[in-house]
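Can't paste images in this forum, so I'm doing it all in text. The chain is below; anyone willing to post the predicted structure tokens underneath?
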Amino acid sequence: MNIRRLIKVNLINIGLLALIVGFRIAAGLLFDDHDGTSNYLMVNAITILFGLGWAGFAIYSNITVIKEDKIDRKKSLQELKSRINSAGNKKFFKAERNHLITMLDSLDLRKKYFEAMDKDSKLRELFFLTENQMMRNVTNAAEYMETFDYISGRDTGYLNTVCNDSQVLLDKFNKLVELSVTYDDEAKEYDTREIDDMIDALETMKKTGRATLGS
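Text version of the structure:
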């Protein structure tokens, strides 16, 4: 989720709410809350109208940001697959290109299942961390192919390492998913510890920048 955009939208919502509250306070200073005049009743009606409008806008704006985030992620995935296909000389690294795209497709195929999980679910968190790391790995692979010396053709083995690391990551994720849906409660408790360990490892990779080009 685009946290910055969500924060920006809600700051605007808070600002609008503050204006409505300010309007009501100012009106309260001008009109006696108990005089029952038409002016006071009109102010109340306007305040309620503004409040309902604000609530509707707040809900709509938050839903829009969340939906846009899903669309952006889908678009980003498609752009990444297109980039890996067209990076550098397309006659080189055909097996690696196909391998990376297949792994992206494997995760994307099951995204709806994990999106539907409770937001506090460890598996849901793990899925998105795995997806983010996979997309980062593929981005690094695309950069490698875009900057590769196709004249000398001397491969450092970096691309093969990215493919292998990504496959290991996907295999571990698949194993944990298998455990979570097939084993009994005792095994699930063990699985939870494994998930925590994997989440910690992914967070460490994200913070340290492991598997970036040139590392």
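The chain has seven helices and no strands. Residues 38-86 form the longest helix (49 residues).
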